[in-house]
Specification:
380 residues; mainly alpha; 2 domains; 15 helices; Growth Hormone, Chain: A
């Protein structure tokens, strides 16, 4: 088996199980809520803590991977994720589960960054869209199987079994990285790591996101303002740093990179809450059990899984921005359909809206990722 194939399989398995965990846990939230007697805001932090940790540590660990090596950093992320999966099995409170999910978010951010970076370094530009498309298809396959299999696991073995199934997969990824993927890729070896910039960035992002969770309290507004100011300070600091974790110049001087990232930000912001909210809607408003809700939620990621390899390959032949723009248009239509959701909305309507979202996201994600990774040099 060639290095290309091994790296693609390893990266795909790793990102599959990261997304499988998240989508499975979404379907198990009502069961977790009943077991730990958790209110909605605290329950939402089981999801939000994971995402916040991933956001806070993505940029610093991206820089660390450039300095010490992509493979070594990938291995570290897989070890964190697998270890915490084992610890989370024994969580005895919602707070402990939130802490576990936070640390898992760190591991997941490392896996996501290094998996894409590894494929970008190994595959030539002419094959990159196809490789990224397959990898992203596995992300969606994890999202697709998560609600269905997560519902079955939760219904028959309890929600802790969701963490158990991740452990052997994580161990397999670690073994392949150690014994099958030879060599290392570090474009910035020996350069400094900007600890001050990392701390400013992390604190600003935490203040911003925690502030949103406190709205409409006054403290929420104050923290949001502090977060925005912190991000502005971070940008100014990075512009003056000799070894920035994020060089502002790649945004200022690279329009393709800037606008592709802005497109990703707006798109993910728009659709991230859909899985969380529709899972609760189906179980609380429609009275479905986790397995039944999972069968409906599977519609979106199944479409994304089927289409992503083709849209990735399409972005190797057609300008990625054209394909991604069409995807964003479909996402807007899907979200508009959900705007008319009511207690009496039929299951068929919900599935149609999810299918439209899935088609749009498949057309957007792979081409946009290809555009981002192809717009910068290997050192970035």
């Amino acid at each position: 088996m060639s290095l290309k194939t091994i790296s693609l399989v390893t990266s795909s398995v790793a990102v599959f199980f990261v997304t499988f965990m998240s989508s499975s846990l979404n379907i198990a939230l009502p069961v977790i809520s009943r077991e730990f007697h958790t209110q909605a805001i605290l329950l939402s932090w089981i999801v939000s803590s994971f995402v916040l940790a991933a956001a806070v540590f993505s940029i610093p660990f991206g820089r660390i991977a450039d300095i010490i090596g992509i493979k070594k950093t990938f291995l570290f992320g897989a070890a964190i994720y697998t270890t915490i999966s084992a610890v989370a099995v024994f969580a005895n409170s919602s707070i402990m589960l939130i802490v576990c999910r936070s640390i898992q978010g760190v591991g997941a951010s490392i896996i996501a960054i290094t998996a894409v970076s590894l494929l970008t370094m190994i595959y030539p530009a002419s094959e990159r869209g196809r490789a990224l498309g397959i990898s992203i298809a596995c992300v969606y396959a994890g999202s697709a199987t998560g609600p269905f299999l997560g519902g079955i696991l939760t219904e028959h073995l309890g929600w802790r079994s969701i963490f158990v199934v991740n452990i052997p997969a994580g161990l397999a990824v670690i073994l392949v990285l150690l014994w099958k993927i030879k060599g290392e890729w570090c474009e910035c070896k020996g350069e400094r790591f900007d600890y001050t910039g990392s701390i400013i960035y992390g604190l600003a992002l935490i203040a911003l996101m925690y502030g949103f969770s406190l709205l409409p309290q006054a403290l929420g507004g104050i923290l949001i303002l502090a977060g925005v100011i912190g991000l502005l300070i971070f940008i100014r600091w990075e512009g003056r740093s000799k070894s920035p974790i994020l060089d502002p110049g790649i945004f200022r001087d690279n329009r393709a990179f800037l606008f592709s990232n802005l497109a990703a930000l707006t798109t993910y912001s728009a659709i991230f809450a859909v899985g969380f909210l529709i899972s609760l809607y189906l179980q609380y408003n429609k009275g479905l059990n986790p397995e039944q809700a999972g069968l409906i939620l599977i519609a979106q990621p199944v479409i994304q899984t089927i289409l992503s390899p083709f849209t990735g390959r399409l972005s190797d032949k057609i300008e990625p921005r054209i394909v991604a723009s069409l995807g964003m248009a479909l996402i807007c239509i899907g979200l508009l359909l959900f705007a008319f959701l009511s207690p009496d909305t039929s299951r068929l309507y919900i599935m149609i809206a999810l299918v439209v979202l899935g088609m749009g996201f498949a057309l957007f994600s792979s081409p946009n990722s290809n555009a981002i990774m192809s717009s910068v040099t290997p050192r970035f």
